[in-house]
Amino acid sequence: MKRFCIIQTCYYYSLIIGLSLFIFSCKNEIQDAVPSSISFQESSIGEQDFARTKFAKILAKALENKDVRAFIKKESLKMFDNDYDVLYHGVKNKIADNDHHTFHQLLSNYADNSEEFNSIVSKLPKLNILVPDLSKANAKTWDTEKMIPLVAVSNSEQEVKGINFVRAYNSKGIEYKLDPFKEPEEVTLVVKNNERIEITSNAKGGRTNANTEWVPYFAQGDLQFYFSGEGFINNSSKTKSAKTNNVVNGVLPSYGLSFTDYSNISFPTTDFGIALAAGYWPLAPEYSLKYFVNYIPELNSINRGSIRKSVYYKKDGTLNQNVKERLMYVRFTSDAALAYASDGWLEGYLDLQCVIAMLKVRPGEDFDKKVTFKSIPLAAGYTNLGQTTKQNFIDNNILTQFDVNTSNSFAYDVRGTWINWFDEGFNWSPFLYGDQMQYVFYEKDDGAEITEEYTVNTSINANFGIGIKDLFNVGFSGSSTNSQKLTIKTTRASQQLGEYVMTYGQDIGFARSPIGIGQLEFIVQAK
What we know:
2 domains, five-stranded antiparallel beta sheet, elongated
């Protein structure tokens, strides 16, 4: 009996030890029972902040795994949204190691349990991992074999509470407080929402709730994911094709024409086609147009002071629908203006947004609106760049350098570096849109959605149509005026950088000084 008890006791101890070893080993193996799709949960801002912080701590621990580091670096270098972002729900089911475990499986192994981890990420549909493009460390230079980064977390407390630090965690769970405006000297990851991605719920209207400028990305569960604008889609061929700015070696465009080419035109004349010098006007640089309009009184009278009229209408007086108002160049007025727009290194690339609105001129009609976006490195916004950095941005079609002969009294001084925007607005027929175009600029950040309103007025004078054969003036007689409220959806965290009302009779392009709107100045060309 005693011998049986001893054997039985040994058996129980062996069983306990065996179970303990089994449980311990399971904790250190990858948890394979992870769903391929997660049901997203609606959560309050506070719940999302808590979940985002928990995720940052789990990610910090997981970075001890070399495969996790290598996967994040590889995905960030793809720059899917024109920044070094990794959208979690876009990559979570990708294989991340040689044992065919997904990224989700690798990370969930560092949570207390897989159910907790699934709950965390289900509260954060726009969950994003940013590898900031720091001046001394970035995704390209990250040595994933050796370097284990800190993980910072960007929450609403920066916006709501106005705290002057950001929380960051190392792989041991130790918390650090970092300065959001002082770049770390080593690679530091940022867990945040992706402000370049928008989502709609199929259960709540789906695509009908999407803005017209959103571009579908992918669907998952009940949600549809979108890019918030075409400017955030990484498309290298599109970027290259956009380089049609007629700039040669940083000098303002010259079309090889001079007034003497048309010296045989006899004046005065009231014929609109002859006044446009057989198609000369659309070819000439804007500052030359201004010179010739002022030089020849008869042209000035017929053209009624509007360079746009000369550019938009052909020699037979018909509207050239291939000509459009093009937002070409933008720059910050000062480094202080750049600092106002930026949230520091936590933000990544700047998300610049321009809303261009044209109110139709007939009473009661609504707007045609275009929203364009530009993604640029923060460093490209500084007013004084080192030559190497500046040349790199120029070579990559991010900046243009203008060197202008300022002794030319017909070209305004636009010297310096400009951010290439290269986007088109509208074909401006005053018979459709009247005499005003509205520009509103933002630096887009994620946050609670708000709506802003602007009062817009537009009109057309009956005398404008002399000699014009515009499709939109069929049946049109007399003058017309319209006034409406322009509504723009933005976020509480976004910075409004300025607004401007362009009038049809104003000079354009290089025939005028750059348009200043406080934080920015910009150049528009009609061509």
